[in-house]
Amino acid sequence: MHRREMLRLAAVAGAAGVLTLDGVTFAHADGPDGAEGASGGPASETRKVTGRLPTGAPDFVHLPVEVPRGVREIAVSYTYDRPAVPAGVQGNACDIGIFDERGTELGGPGFRGWSGGARTEFAISAERATPGYLAGPVRPGTWHVVLGPYTVAPQGLAYEVTVTLRYGPPGLTPAPVYPPQRAKGRGRAWYRGDNHLHSVHSDGKRTPAEVAAAARAAGLDWITTTEHNTTSSHGAWEGLWADDFLILTGEEVTTRNGHVVALGTDPGVFVDWRYRARDNAFGRFSRRIRQAGGLVVPAHPHATCVGCNWKFGFNEADAVEVWNGPYTPDDEIALAEWDNTLVAAARRGRPWLPAIGNSDAHREPQVVGHPQTVVLAEELSRTALLAGIRAGRCWIAESSAVGLSFSASGGRGAHAGIGERLRVDRDAPVTVRLDVTGAAGCSASFVTDQGRLFTTPVPADGKVQWRTTASYAAYVRAEVRHPPADGGSSGMPGPFAALTNPVFLGREEA
Question: pLDDT, tens digit, for every residue of 196-253?
Fold first, then answer.
């Protein structure tokens, strides 16, 4: 790193800042017609940039690239060293992406792609782009290759970035074909969906066609494509939807302080991720998600990977992912944290935060649809499904082999299902009913604001009842669990077969 670059680094306030390197320029610019070889110019030009980032480098390092007229394609590759580090010390990990001549402003229009650490090279032209990147004209001006040094070893991070410009006619950008917002479906019904999935458009290994095939095999009615920090997959599903299979678009907004699923946003809408909790920017981008018709869903809030732990709080959330992939202790923590939010909301009928579950599947052998969220919706459409999640009319299953109904009744014929309120007097008897299938060998529990008050083995007919009152239980939710894998010696409960959102009991207090 040059001395003047170090001075710029020193001037940045906080690790969430930006380091701008010396720019890259190219000697060649084609003639007015932009044709390859015009004026005797070369067909392509390449520049290499090397440097070293110290521990504590800013989150983003910008490499300005001056793009002249007549460029057909810009191609970028990069490498960085991975020195050995002591146990317990983070090594080098560096992401990459690019912004075009419209600039790098937070939330601005210049975004052209991000592959994180999943790729070492990419290319963009008008006709096509590497998955994770957006096809479109390579217009003249200052582009920025962006490095994201996620972690830096004590020895520093030595990098090399290679930029190649290929000259020639610009070509035409095909209009994207986005999935429809509604499928024929079954009318008002319970629909099964997986709303956190990755493909080759970020760090997944499956193609969109393979994801769709796996979802159909898992018995799903709908999925949401949620790549890390890019929308390039939104137009990659042509021919994969059907009358009984809906595909929604979204994004996994992957910040340094946690990940959030932008669930069901308008196709093509990009949500920026370049901020930390201390930057007080999350509210702005939560509004961006909602303005685009989507839901704000913190993902795996207690995951142990670097940068995965959720630090933005739940005030802006519309739902929370309490079960992510195979059930693990960090999911158990997320479940307990979520349950505490129910206690805070229960008595006064304040807004509460529904729970959902998704597979976060990236590659084999990770199973699409394990788990899946089952939503009561008026139809198989984006609007109806998101309304069902927002209202908490949903439950989570490990697979489509598990079926469930859960309700409470009492008073003078009053009845309430998942996500609803049973309005009865405080001392009126309430009967809670669970009917579950596909859960042989499991136990069923009813959990209230006091905790787990009733547990029983799931009987052969799958029907479980329990009686309570609104004065004893502000809400009731159901858990269906397998036996603990270790027989209970660790004190950890077994993994879930299913769990529900609550039924609230009693009349709202003023």
Answer: 999 999 999 999 999 999 999 999 999 999 999 999 999 999 999 999 999 999 999 9
The strand pair at 414-417 and 421-422 is best described as unpaired
Tokens of 170: 């610009």
In which order are the strands placed within the sheet that holds 71-80?
Answer: 44-53, 157-167, 71-80, 121-125
Amino acid at 65: V
Measure the CA–CA gap between 271 and 249, rounded to whole angstroms. Answer: 12
**Which has the closest alpha carbon to 317: 344, 293, 287, 276?**
287
Q: Identify the pLDDT of residue 123.
A: 98
Query: Which residues is 318 bridged to in the sheet?
Result: none
The tokens for 111 are 């975004």
The low-confidence residues of the chain, meaning pLDDT below 70, are 1-16, 28-41, 347-349, 509-510
Here the tokens at position 24 are 């890259």
221-255: b (≥16 Cβ within 10 Å) or e:
bbbbbbbbbbbbbbbbbeebbeeebbbbbbbbbbb
Quote the pLDDT of residue 489.
79
* Torsion from C-alpha of 157, 256, 233, 325, nearest 10 degrees: 110
CB 187, CB 103: distance < 8 Å: no
334, containing H or E segment: helix 329-346
Q: With CA atoms as reference, report the closest residue to 294 among 314, 310, 316, 312.
A: 316
Q: Which residue has the tokens 């009492």?
A: 410
Q: What is the number of other CB atoms lying within 10 angstroms of the CB of residue 173?
A: 15
Q: Where are the beta strands (DSSP E) in 3-80?
A: 18-20, 44-53, 60-67, 71-80
Query: Contact at 8 Å (CB) between 229 and 252?
Result: yes
- Bridge partners (DSSP) of residue 246 are 222
Predicted confidence at residue 35, as pLDDT, reads 43
State the Cα–Cα distance between residues 17 and 363, nearest whole angstrom.
33
- Measured at the CA of 223, the angle between CA 219 and CA 227, to 5 degrees, comes to 140
What's the pLDDT at 411?
Answer: 78
Q: Which residues pair with 224 in a beta bridge?
A: 248
- 410, 398, 471: which is closest to 436 by C-alpha? 398
Pairing of strands 372-377, 394-397: antiparallel
Phi-psi region of 239 (alpha: psi -120 to 50; beta: other; left: phi over 0): left
Query: For the residues of 119-141, what is the DSSP string, one character each?
Result: -SEEEEESS-B-TTB------SE
What's the length of the chain?
Answer: 510
Task: Please state, in angstroms and rounded to a whole number, the distance separating the CA atoms of residues 359 and 371.
Answer: 5
